[in-house]
Amino acid sequence: xxxxxxxxxxxxxxxxxxxxxxxxxxxxxxxxxxxxxxxxxxxxxxxxxxxxxxxxxxxxxxxxxxxxxxxxxxxxxxxxxxxxxxxxxxxxxxxxxxxxxxxxxxxxxxxxxxxxxx
Length: 118
Hints:
mainly beta, five-stranded antiparallel β-sheet, 11 strands, globular
């Protein structure tokens, strides 16, 4: 089994920055990719960004969002700059892991709450 544990969420003022972290543990035979999703209140879960190992492990930048990965530590990070109230939601860590017995599977963390409010 694979466990993903997020940290770094909280209450932030608009315009501020936040860095979320996620640590993967367990049976990490081959980690194909890691990334982040988010779910705003009353909305569907949406992808923020992923880093796939086969495409290189450099940062992925999507506007105000920067996803980075430490392959040696099996960790992924999400830096959010210039936070807006609409960034409020639960942020979930994601990993796709290959194991000889199960093939490639998706895993999710339990989520960390980010609230942007003055």
